[in-house]
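User: Here's a chain of 361 residues. Predict its fold as tokens.
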Amino acid sequence: MSREQVSDTPLPPLSARAERIRARDPAAMASLMRDLEAGRPEAVTELGQLVRACGLSAPSQGPLVVGLTGPPGSGKSTLVDALLGHWRGRAGEDAGDARPVGVIAVDPSSPVHGGAILGDRIRMQRHATDPGVFVRSVASRGASGGLARVVHDLIAVLGCGGFELVLVETVGVGQSEVDVTREADVTVVVLVPGLGDTIQAMKAGVLELADVLVVNKADLPGADAAVANLRAMLELRHASGPRAAGHAHAGAAAAAHAGAELAPEVPILETRALAGDGIPALAAAIEAAGAARVPLRAARRRRGARDAIVLCATRRLAAELEARLDAGGPDVLGMLDDVAERRRSAIEVAEGLMAAVHDEY
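Assistant: Prediction complete.
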């Protein structure tokens, strides 16, 4: 069936919950998000129908997705709270007419119950009664790169709910946080002065991710030095050339910025999130970066879609293999003993199991 035939196929009627999401019902959005996190197949089908009905496929449509990443303790949650206050309560503008903003706060998982353990919504309680703000804490559940696997779908729910801005706050695991660039239209890297040589080394890696650089807690000693250091690193990267850097580093971070030569210079801003200092300038920089990167959105979202598909397939395969191993039986116990006693390699046994799954499917 061609793409045109698919687009002309009448859509099935939406569920009552999906209709409520389109009316920006927070309870309906939370309900679908919960089912998506639980991996319920009917929720996945429902979201697919909802996304097609909302028509968010064009790169210029849908919410502006802003990823905030950086080391633990850099004040990302406080910065998100300050940005919410700015976008929802600009001087002379009624909050009811301001742009609706959704927040997905990815927290570390509890080792006991698997849920989010920080609960960033606690830090944003002043927005709890604002119908134009929706905050969802989601557990990373061991996903690498600082993002939960379900974040891609949660962003879609918020987009269908009419949210024009979506802020995604990552766990804060440092240099490995590259997943955020696959989901975000604009990536904000948050740093703080005075965290030592570890953060200095990490900066060189995150420069490949950043659309906006922020030195938060700028009242601390060393803020000016941190800004100067970042500026020197950016100048060095610029001298090396973004295309050369993209060829030299074939990883996800460099791939996420293919075509970065079309983007404007990366701004370096100083903020004090608790006091609100520098927040208007940061919001303006994010909006400017979002507008400048509209031509790059299609490529970024295509890469994000690819990675989301691979993650879903990997998760499904892992669950199937774990179920077979957990089933026990003489054959399984024999395989485990063979690997444990080094009579067979784990790779050999894994390939045999995957071949069996492939034959069945």
